[in-house]
Write a structure and sequence with these properties.
Blueprint lengths: L1 E8 L1 H12 L4 E11 L4 E9 L3 H10 L2 H4 L1 E5 L7 H9 L10 H12 L3 H20 L2 H10 L3 H13 L2 H32 L14 H4 L3 H19 L3 H10 L2 H13 L3 H32 L5 H15 L1
Antiparallel strand pairs: 1-3, 1-4, 2-3
Helix pairs in contact: 1-15, 5-8, 6-7, 6-9, 6-13, 7-12, 8-9, 8-14, 9-13, 11-12, 11-14, 13-14
C-alpha cells in the first residue's frame, strides 16, 4: 500500500523537510519542485512511501510546523508500478492494512460527527423505521433501521476525542448525539401519538410482538455485543473498510431502542420504556469504551518520535530559518 504525500513549504524550510523525507524508512521517491507553490510562496515536495511509514513522517512534519507554514496532503494512488516502491514496502516495519494515520482518523470521524441536516434526517428516518418495525413486530424493518442509523460516526469521533484530547471534536460529537437522539425520539413519539387514534396500530401493540423483546430486555449480552460492535467499528474506520460498518450497524440496537422508548412512552408502557432506555445507554457506552480501547492499543503499539529526535529536528528547522 503506497501513499503519496504532497508537501508545500517555504523555501527556507525545504532543505530540512527533504532531508527528513529522504532519510525516513519506507520512502521510495522524493521529488522537489523549487518555487512551484504560488500561494503560499514556496517549494512543493512529493513523496512516495509505504503506508506504514506515513504516520512517522507526518509526525516529523508536525514537529517542523509544516501544517502551519504550508500544507500536507495525503493521497493514495490506485496503482504504483515501481521496484523501489516494492522494496520500500518490504523495508517498512509492520503492515499497511494495520497502519494508523491519526490525522486521517480524526478528519474522517470529524466529518461524520457534526450535527448536520443529513445526519438528523437519517437518524429521524431510522428511528421512524424502527418504531414501525416495533409496532408491526417486523424484524426486517428493525434491521433496516439499524443499517440506516448514522450514530456510529459521532460515537467513533467521541472515542477519538477522548484518546487524542481533541475538545472540539468531542464537543461536536456530543452535540450530534445529544440533539439528534432526542429529536428523533420526539418525532417517533409524535408519529405514534397520531397513529393510535387513526387505527394504524392497536394500543396494546407492544404486548403482541415477540420479535422485539430483545430491545427492552437488556442483559449481559447487550453490553458484550455493543463492545464487540465498537471494536469492529473502530477497526473498520482505521482500516478504511466502510463495508464492515454495515455489519456493525446491524449488530447493535441503539436506534431500535430509541424508537422503542418513544413508542412505549406514548402507549404508557413505562417499564418497557425504562428497559429500552437502559438498552440504549448500554449500547452507547459499550461502543465508546470499546472504541477507546482499540485506539489506546494502537497508540501503544505505534512507534512514536522520541522527544530527543523531535528536539534535534526542531533545532535544525530553527537553524534553517536564520
Amino acid at each position: 500500500m503506497i501513499v503519496q504525500l504532497r508537501i508545500c513549504v517555504p523555501g527556507e524550510l525545504s532543505g530540512v523537510v527533504v532531508e527528513s523525507c529522504t532519510s525516513h524508512v519506507g520512502v521510495s521517491e522524493v521529488a522537489l519542485a523549487t518555487g512551484a507553490s504560488v500561494l503560499p510562496p514556496g517549494d512543493v515536495i512529493q513523496v512516495l512511501l509505504a503506508r506504514e511509514s506515513v504516520e512517522g513522517l507526518v509526525e516529523k512534519l508536525h514537529v517542523l510546523d509544516v501544517q502551519q507554514r504550508g500544507s500536507i496532503s495525503v493521497l493514495e494512488p490506485d496503482l504504483v508500478l515501481s521496484d523501489r516502491a516494492d522494496r520500500a514496502e518490504a523495508e517498512a516495519p509492520g503492515e499497511g492494512a494495520d497502519a494508523v494515520i491519526w490525522d486521517e482518523v480524526s478528519r474522517q470521524t470529524g466529518e461524520d460527527s457534526r450535527l448536520t441536516w443529513s445526519f438528523l434526517a437519517f437518524l429521524v428516518l431510522a428511528t421512524q423505521l424502527a418504531a414501525i418495525g416495533i409496532v408491526t413486530d417486523s424484524t426486517i424493518a428493525i434491521v433496516g433501521a439499524m443499517a440506516v442509523g448514522p450514530e456510529f460516526g459521532p460515537l467513533a469521533a467521541l472515542a477519538v476525542a477522548l484518546v487524542r484530547r481533541e475538545r472540539r471534536l468531542g464537543r461536536d460529537a456530543a452535540v450530534a448525539l445529544g440533539v439528534g437522539f432526542p429529536v428523533a425520539m420526539l418525532a417517533a413519539a409524535l408519529a405514534a401519538w397520531l397513529s393510535v387514534p387513526l387505527g394504524l396500530f392497536p394500543s396494546d401493540a407492544l404486548n403482541r410482538g415477540s420479535a422485539v423483546e430483545f430491545i427492552y430486555h437488556p442483559g449481559p449480552y447487550s453490553l458484550i455485543v455493543a463492545v464487540l460492535a465498537g471494536i469492529a467499528g473502530m477497526l473498520s474506520v482505521i482500516s478504511r473498510r466502510s463495508a464492515a460498518l454495515i455489519g456493525v450497524f446491524i449488530s447493535v440496537t441503539t436506534v431500535p431502542a430509541a424508537g422503542f422508548v418513544a413508542v412505549a412512552l406514548v402507549l404508557g408502557e413505562y417499564q418497557k420504556a425504562a428497559g429500552s432506555a437502559l438498552q440504549l445507554f448500554l449500547n452507547l457506552l459499550g461502543i465508546v469504551v470499546a472504541a477507546v480501547g482499540v485506539l489506546i492499543f494502537y497508540r501503544l503499539v505505534t512507534k512514536r518520535l522520541s522527544p530527543d529526535a523531535a528536539l534535534r529536528l526542531r533545532r535544525r528547522a530553527d537553524g534553517s530559518r536564520r
